[in-house]
Amino acid sequence: MLIYFIPLYIAITLAIGFWASKKIKTSSDFMLAGKSLSTSFVGVTLFATWFGSSYIMGIPGEFVENGFTSFITLILTSAICLILVGYFYTRKLYRMNIVTVGDFFRIRFNKKLEVVISVIMVFTYPLWIAAQFVALSYLFQNVLGVPMEYGVLVGASIVILYTYIGGMWAVSYTDMLQSIMIVIGLLVLLFNVLDQTGGILPLFADKPEDFFNLIPQGGLTEWSEYLAVLLAFSIGGIPVQEIYQRVFSAKSEKAAVNGIYFAAFLMVFLTSIPLVIALGAETLHPELMGDDHGQNIIPSMVSLYSSLPVQILFYGALISAILSTSSGAILSSATMAGENLLKPYVPNITDKQLLLWTRFSVVAVAGVSCFIALLDTDIVGLVVASLSLVLVCIFAPFTFGLFWKKASVFGAWSAVVVGGLTWLLCYLLETQIDATLYGTPASCLAMVIGSLVYPDKVKHKL
User: Fold this and answer.
1) Cα–Cα distance between 48 and 61 in angstroms, integer?
2) Burial, 268: exposed, middle or buried (Cβ in 10 Å; 0-12, 13-18, 19+)?
3) SS3 content of the chain, % helix, strand, coil (to 5)
4) Does 199 share its domain with 276?
């Protein structure tokens, strides 16, 4: 039955994409859904984009093994990031009436910095997208028997098709459907597990005291890893395009801010459900943790205990998480490619031509992501690599540029170069302290010193 359900679900997703394509008349429709998204759409589409496969197949096992330190670093940090964006960044950026993060760098600094930042952003997204393609290929392999290489290509083709034809409209509507599937699937599975464990309290009754620690109890290495992940997920995500793709797509400033807060709530509430399910699975069957640190504890529990309808809901939720994350990331990257790397340098480009080239960029980004996915199947490593580069190169000039009037072009260049080189050097030397803990403060310090030593001759107003 599952063999028939998955193609049917994918067919429905594609049908929504084709339906949404009727709304695409201009490049703004494709990139920003005509700036008409409500609070619920902003929140749900952002949640769906961030709720990737790791929240079902990776993080729950980490939580069972490491306790609440994992909850802080891998769950709560995403909500912290969104709250910071909603409170400090959203209003100022929405009022600028721009399309991408790259547009901000052009207005605040100059075109050259816009290009560099856009290139960094565009080329870090394929790492994240590749991680989703790998997860989707594993799913196709386990359920449909499709070899991994073909699974990557099939998954990429599906995402390309409905993103290419429907843009932000297709992503928004499919994200809404996929979020509903995620909620239903996880809630049904949760109630099923809690029914067998006798409720939620028994899951925590026999846990050791260190399971409830919020900070690491080890030495320098443990603290380094803890702080690096904390930084990467709480402030490393602040400059990313997929957040502002939804902010700029909102129908009003209020809808944008409230949508971000709604997404933060969803990122804590709904991502906590797989953690409880994993605890229940570990209580009922400790052997499911296995040698893979519980990466497949929830799918294994589904196979052992769930009825066919629950299995259908679960795999629907898992497919939804992967597809929505992939499509959102591809669209964000393609939007920056079209808006910041093509449009400023092609004289007299028409809106129709821009729309076409942005759609071509969807295919190009997905193609690069496929290539990376076929070369490297380390899902966690791919995601961490993409976040680290954004954190050490882009966070400082983005934040200082938005809030500090003295931030200069030279300071911004210094932040990008010094932060990136410091991170790379420490990474290559394999320093005991994580490279991002050197790169991030180095970038911020370079931003301040560079701006004070070489201030801009012309003051910028935002």
Assistant:
1) 21
2) middle
3) 80, 0, 20
4) yes
Query: Model's pTM, two decimal places?
Result: 0.89
**CB contact at 8 A, 358 and 365:** no
Are 104 and 144 members of one domain?
yes
Check which CATH number belongs to the domain holding 366 and give it.
Answer: 1.20.1730.10
Q: Of 355, 389, 423, which marks where a domain is finished? A: 389
- Distance from first CA to last CA of the chain, Å, rounded? 57
Cβ–Cβ under 8 Å, residues 30 and 161: no
Domain count, the chain: 2
3-state secondary structure 42-62: HHHHHHHHHCCCHHHHCHHHH
Paired tokens of 102: 């790259």
Neighbouring residues of 384: CB distance < 8 A, sequence distance ≥ 6 = 232
Give the model's confidence band at 398: pLDDT under 50 very low, under 70 low, under 90 confident, else very high.
very high
CA 101 to chain centre: 15
DSSP-assigned beta bridge partners for residue 37:
250
pLDDT tens-place string over residues 254-312: 999 999 999 999 999 999 999 998 888 888 887 777 655 666 777 777 777 667 777 77
Q: Say yes or no: 370 and 406 in one domain.
A: no
Q: What's phi and psi for 296, nearest 5 deg?
A: -115, 25
pLDDT at 311: 78
CA 271 to chain centroid, in Å, comes to 14
Amino acid at 299: P
**Computed over its alpha carbons, how large is the radius of gyration of the chain?**
22
Same domain assignment for residues 271 and 379: yes
Residue 380, pLDDT > 60, answer no
**Angle, helix 220-234 to helix 435-453, in steps of 10 degrees:** 60
